[in-house]
Amino acid sequence: MAQDASRQCQTSTPRLRLRILATTDLHAHILPWDDLAERPAPDRGLAQVASLIAAARAEVPQSLLLDNGDFLNGSPLAEHIAETRLPSAARPHPMIAAMNRLGYDAATLGNHDFSNGLPLLTRSLRHAAFPVVATNLDRLTAGRASPTRRPFLPRQLILRRDLPDQSGQMHPVSIGILGFLPPQTVLWERRHLAGRIATRSILAAAREALNRLRRAGVDVVIALSHSGLGGPDPVEADHCENISRALAALDGIDAVIAGHTHQVHPFATQDDAQEKPLVLPGCFGSHLGVSDLDLEPAPPGSAATRWQVIRHRAELRPVAERQGAEGRLHARVAPDPAILATAEADTAALRQRAAFPVGQTEVPLHSYFALIGHSAVQTLLAEAQARNMRRLLAGLPEAELPLVVAVAPFKAGGRSGPGNYTDIPPGPLTVRHISDLYIHPNSPVALRVTGRDLALWLERSVSLFRQIAPGSRDAPLIDPDFPAYNLDMIHGLTHGIDLSQPARFDCLGRMARPTAHRITDLRHMGKPVAPDQTFVLVTNSYRASGGAGFAGTEPADVVMEDSRPLRRILQDHVACCQTVAPAAATGWRFAPMPGTTAVFDSGPGAAAHVADVPGLERAGPCPTGFLRFRLHL
Fold it and tell me: How far apart are CA 34 and CA 52, in angstroms?
């Protein structure tokens, strides 16, 4: 009987398991610490993810570890590296050092990996002990007639692994890796990439690379897609920013790691009910993506492929969880000491530099109520940008035009959780506070726009709000699919927002209802804004490059660009004033709707400031960690 069982085991069809571990949008967050707020942050950090990686590897040997881009930039630590030292032969970028220590097998790039320029990126990647793939990214080389294009990085990779079957026998498997970033990256980062880097359509580049990989006889293809989920239709998605679902639908791709939008997907375990495993593991190291592919020998006649996927399962493993009625955050794992050590020296230098005093504020600077038009932070940012741009435009014809400033809230909860707010008390302002007030490496741009453009700009912005029927009680105010950083309010203008009307644009900036109008009584200096009236609008480089599809952002509309980062401009403004006291009101209001209330969520710290906002009251805590508020319209 024992011999029969042994013979049956030897002759049964071998089955292999390939486990794919994935991170995305780490943004150089290594420690479980919020450097801007100076407090522990158990829901982030590669050091925490490292413990999840070790556990997942112990469950399935020979697991692949992949990163989906935006790993080098986007944190105070990353900005410190960019501003104070370039990686050297002796000291690599701390993020690369940490990833090397964890043994990443491959990675791709995200759009923000270019935000501090090509020199920092290329010098950082020299230290990477893992390959980096960029399927739809080209380097431009000057030619006599026109620039020629060649790969910036390898367009595809082939990793070879020996995986055990159910009896322990090892089998060679070849795995193709593709990597993509949004084609719009060259627009968003044009100050660094113009004339040097070009992108191609993700889906077109994927089809070409798939043909090459299949001709090479790979068994499994994994797409690292630094792009959000988007819709499933490849025709509609072809040139979109977020196309991961359409990418997963391509024949020949077996698994997709998505990113870029800082969302999480799937919310629950995803198995064979889905055609392909697709994970989007949050941001800052909040989750580890785990995808298991079960393989069997491919049937005869399957080209050069030896193995096929017969079953899959995908899940996200969080580093922290919320507990109790108030949703208090608790770490699920301890950080890896070896990963903590990779950032120790640079973190110490960062904290010393961040403590340098810049000026004073007489009023609280918080963003708890920025989404309802009550934020001294927005006013301070607008004042700094207006002062800087008036200086740059002095002596030019545009100096005679009325100047207004578009500012969006960058820290307003949302996908990054209830700790994602600025909260600076009256008193000293340090370099750390300046970084907290403006978290992105954007620079200022001035556009020549019309009153019609401004009205469309605002209609695009206020699509963040849901339509509310008059007389409704506790209707949800905010569309959770609309990023708060696209709520541009234009300082220098006053207007109303009629929430009884539908949104003119959808959350992606597409015109949904051309006849809808929410913006009412649009005025400048107390006078109605005429559609053909000309203004100078100050915005940031991301928005001016077409980011999120706002009106009046064609290259011909640009009248002035400043290469200095907006963070530096804000710091200089505070240092010059020494003491600031910006007003909290931002010049807009919701149109009155008697007997109507709406609810929205903010951070727990908002409770200390609720009395400052007319018509606002607490509605209670949420298990997500947010605090709910009721607004009487």
Answer: 20
